């Protein structure tokens, strides 16, 4: 319910570029996202097989939920092209990203995903503004200004990441991911290192990023409250296998 | 005598400068491969690169001299096709110096690369950046302390080289007579004052270089294996 409210707030957001919702210049491609993969994993409990068969609808914010070692991050990294599955098929909007049968495996550079890492992975040698500029495919100062404004980073644009708090780093990471105009967003437990109050504030920032993108967002989390607030759909993983999926309210209440 | 002193120091600087420059250019890709790639002979390659740290310089110098000989394949090839004789020449000493200083360049660069969190490279890749662009715009700027250490260590090590230079180059003023050899030569001739002047210059240069290394900020602490 909070989520509905927040999205409405963001839709009403007026910026010089008129971003927000379907008019956003950062809007992703959207389309069908089909995932059917297998990969063996080595966890603290021994070997297990990650086996996921999913189809994610356009504009959906899907949360991968489960304990450590369930395969959430592995799945996210496979989708980004940072890990290779043992076999299977991944396609986005009709473009095949991975097909073991046809030996197709697009590198991360060609998948155009916005990935927010657990440690944010901001480039220490670049200021906040440079981090965002570096992500752009073609330089556009107005769009950088717009992203800085959206995420409340104008005052910090000349700062280096080492000087930022965890919450500020997370906002820069989201802005940077959007600057590349990705097809979709992949967020790997972006709030796990933050305290409770900061998490609540930044959950809104994630919704804002999702709204700006207007495409699929996959979020890894093991926090029920977070999932209830953010997700349209939740996929519960245990030992690499999907045990339940559906609306968060149905699964958690 | 005065010009001999200056010329010897200039030749020492020239040898150390060229060795450092050549090793930086070839060291970066080698360090990248050792830091990020897995292949079956990686341990052998690392061991070979580190050999000059434990091998007596005379051993390496001896093998380089043998290789340079026109009686052997490498020396014969150079003489026949390029009309070059490396034994007892500056170029021969330079090549030996490059081989002998490999670990002093490569190890700090490799350590600098492995210290950079793997997520920085991955973030650049997911933003569509190629490996080359990531290397020059993300990795290199985030390993400056390691680069300074590698350059300084290599230069300092070259300045003090003795065994390899005397084996491969002998003691030819203006061609292969570097400061460390001049010190030995002057002591043998009981010219302690001149030996002291050379020694003092090398002492000061080494001290300045090591101070630079220790003044550098520590490299990034990463999560790479």
Summary tags:
heterodimer; A: 253 residues; alpha/beta; Rossmann fold; six-stranded mixed β-sheet; five-stranded antiparallel β-sheet; globular; B: 225 residues; mainly alpha; MetI-like fold; 76% helix
Overall description:
The complex is a heterodimer of chains A (253) and B (225). Chain A has 253 residues and is α/β, with parallel strands linked by helices. Helices cover 34% and strands 26% of the residues of chain A. Chain A has a single domain (2-18, 32-248), classed as Rossmann fold, CATH 3.40.50.300. Chain A has 9 helices and 11 strands. In chain A, strands 7-8-9-3-10-11 form a 6-stranded mixed β-sheet, sandwiched between helices. In chain A, strands 2-1-4-5-6 form a 5-stranded antiparallel β-sheet, with helices on one face. Chain A is globular, with a radius of gyration of 18 Å. The relative contact order of chain A is 0.20. The model of chain A is unreliable at 1-22 (pLDDT under 50). By secondary structure, chain B is mostly helical. Chain B has one domain (2-215): MetI-like fold (Orthogonal Bundle), CATH 1.10.3720. Chain B has helices at 2-36, 42-54, 57-68, 73-82, 90-115, 118-126, 131-139, 144-159, 163-168, 179-188, 192-215. In chain B, helix 1 packs across helix 8 (144-159), helix 8 packs antiparallel against helix 11 and helix 10 (179-188) runs antiparallel to helix 11. Chain B starts with a helix and ends in a 10-residue tail after the last helix. The model of chain B has no long low-confidence stretch (mean pLDDT 90).
């Amino acid at each position: 319910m909070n989520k509905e409210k927040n999205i409405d707030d963001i839709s009403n957001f007026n910026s010089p570029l008129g971003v927000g919702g379907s008019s956003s210049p950062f809007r992703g491609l959207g389309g069908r996202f089909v995932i059917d993969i297998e990969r063996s994993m080595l966890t603290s409990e021994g070997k297990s097989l990650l086996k996921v068969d999913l189809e994610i609808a356009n504009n959906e914010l899907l949360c991968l939920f489960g304990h450590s070692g369930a395969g959430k991050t592995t799945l996210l990294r496979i989708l980004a092209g940072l890990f290779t599955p043992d076999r299977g098929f991944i396609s986005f909007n009709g473009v095949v990203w991975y097909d073991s049968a046809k030996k197709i495996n697009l590198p991360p550079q060609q998948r155009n995903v916005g990935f927010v890492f657990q440690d944010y992975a901001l480039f220490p040698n670049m200021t906040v503004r440079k981090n965002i500029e570096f992500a752009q495919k073609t330089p556009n100062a107005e769009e950088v200004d717009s992203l800085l404004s959206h995420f409340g980073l104008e005052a910090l644009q000349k700062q280096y990441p080492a000087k930022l708090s965890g919450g500020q780093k997370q906002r820069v990471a989201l802005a940077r991911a959007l600057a590349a105009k990705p097809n979709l967003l992949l967020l790997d437990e972006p709030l796990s290192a933050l305290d409770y109050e900061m998490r609540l504030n930044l959950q809104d920032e994630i919704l804002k990023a999702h709204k700006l993108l207007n495409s699929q967002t996959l979020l890894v989390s093991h926090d029920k409250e977070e999932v209830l607030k953010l997700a349209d759909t939740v996929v519960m993983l245990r030992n690499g296998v999907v045990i339940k999926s559906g609306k968060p309210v149905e699964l958690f209440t | 005598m005065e010009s001999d002193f200056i010329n010897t120091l200039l030749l020492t600087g020239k040898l150390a400068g060229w060795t450092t420059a050549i090793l930086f250019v070839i060291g970066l890709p080698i360090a990248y491969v050792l830091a990020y790639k897995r292949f079956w002979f990686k341990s052998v390659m690392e061991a070979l690169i580190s050999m000059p740290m434990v091998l007596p310089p005379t051993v390496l110098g001896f093998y380089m001299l043998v290789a340079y000989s026109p009686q052997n394949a490498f020396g014969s090839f150079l003489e026949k096709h390029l009309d070059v004789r490396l034994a007892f020449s500056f170029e021969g000493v330079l090549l030996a110096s490059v081989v002998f200083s490999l670990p002093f360049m490569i190890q700090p660069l490799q350590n600098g690369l492995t210290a950079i969190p793997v997520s920085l490279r991955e973030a650049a890749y997911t933003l569509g950046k190629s490996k080359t662009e990531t290397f020059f715009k993300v990795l290199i700027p985030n390993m400056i302390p390691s680069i300074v250490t590698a350059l300084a260590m290599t230069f300092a090590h070259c300045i003090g080289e003795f065994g390899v230079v005397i084996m491969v180059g002998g003691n030819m003023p203006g061609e292969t007579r570097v400061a460390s050899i001049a010190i030995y030569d002057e002591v043998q001739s009981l010219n302690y004052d001149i030996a002291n002047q050379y020694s003092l210059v090398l002492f000061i240069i080494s001290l300045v270089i090591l101070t630079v290394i220790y003044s550098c900020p520590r490299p990034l602490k990463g999560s790479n294996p």
